[in-house]
Amino acid sequence: MTVAQGPGSAGTIGAGQRQRFFDDGYLLVPGVLGAAEVARYAGAVRDLLPRDLTVPEHWHAHAGRLKPHRLLADGTRDDCIDTPDLLPLLCNQRLYQVAAELLGRPELRVYDGSVGITLRNSSGGGILSQGLHVDASVPNDVDDFLGAPEELQVGGCYYLTDVAATGGGIHVVPGGHRHVAETAAGSPAGRHLHDNWKRIPEMETIEVTGNAGDFAMLHHLMPHAASHNRLPPARLAVFVRYVRVDQTHGYGRRPPRRYNDAQLAVIDDLGRRLLGLDPW
Ligand SMILES: O=C(O)CCC(=O)C(=O)O
Ligand SMILES: [Fe+2]
Asked: Which of 62, 119, 224, 227, when mutated, tests ligand 1's pocket best, judged by the most ligand atoms within 8 Å of its CB?
């Protein structure tokens, strides 16, 4: 397990941990959130579940894993759950510092904000509940991954519960991001191989276990997948991703989302820049 230094380490992860991230393709950043914050955010995630446990039709629900969505007026679904309760997770100072260190410059944009709740279940015979895939910040109509720092996205999930082995932790392939880059570079299909790398053939994975308040940070070419939760505690996670403002494909210059007064009240100065409301 690749583990970064804990909080109080001057806000940086240091060259060694940075190197490990680029060698392994992932890094567990411990203690991004303190116990009181964890309790508050975990409560906010639990409160997304209707009291009568009706799972709305427009939520994703598969093998005990729920992803809340909002149904928009035009009938589309939005999985960014940026309620005033959860929005500060996108503006977290310490996680931002880690992302800026990995991405090599301070001017970043943040996005995602989706929530993953994995309940204990005995479905499926295997370990993974999802096919191995990458969530690359490279559009599907681009033929090759560049591998340049400006193209990189780093992101993953906060654990809001302790995630012990077989408890639904995200699975990764140590070094798998290099395999994806090399295989794509060596194939005429490039970025389009394996259904745009959304259906990666089986590879050996490990589960990222961690404590409530930790963040599992992944390189955007890291093959990964959700896993079944075989343990009683639900796994609560919130996903956050970062790119540089000069991101090759424009991910860093997307128009900001629209926020109401209650949301704006919880967005600090750093958050305003990360969310694209103010320039850097
Ligand atoms: O829930 C997880 O552990 C991973 C989910 C994931 O990778 C995804 O939905 O793209
Ligand atoms: Fe994913």
From this structure: 224
Confidence check: pLDDT of 2 > 60: no
Percent of the chain with pLDDT over 90: 95
Domain interval for residue 210: 31-274
**Number of independent structural domains in the chain:** 1
What is the arithmetic mean of pLDDT over 191-220?
98
Give the pTM: 0.96
Torsion, CA 130, CA 44, CA 85, CA 136, rounded to 10: -10
Does 14 fall in a domain? no
Q: pLDDT at position 265, please? A: 98
Residue 152 pLDDT grade (very low, low, confident, very high; cuts 50, 70, 90): very high
Is there a domain that residue 226 lies in? Answer: yes
At 55, phi and psi to the nearest 5? Answer: -95, 110
Confidence band of 117 (pLDDT split at 50, 70, 90): very high
CA 67 to ligand 1: nearest atom: 9
Distance between Cα 79 and ligand 1 center (Å): 12
Residue 193 lies in a domain: yes
Residue 265, in any domain of the structure: yes
Using CB distances shorter than 6 Å, the residues near ligand 1 are: 116, 135, 170, 224, 226, 237
For 150-227, where are the alpha helices, taking DSSP H only? 176-185, 193-197
The continuous run of DSSP H or E covering 103 comes out as helix 93-103
CATH of the domain at 245: 2.60.120.620
Which residue's CA is minimally distant from atom 4 of ligand 1?
226
Residue 161 has pLDDT above 50, yes or no: yes
Selection from 115, 114, 117, 98 nearest residue 106 by Cα: 98
Tell me which residue has its CA closest to atom 2 in ligand 1.
226
Selection from 195, 130, 156 nearest residue 25 by Cα: 156
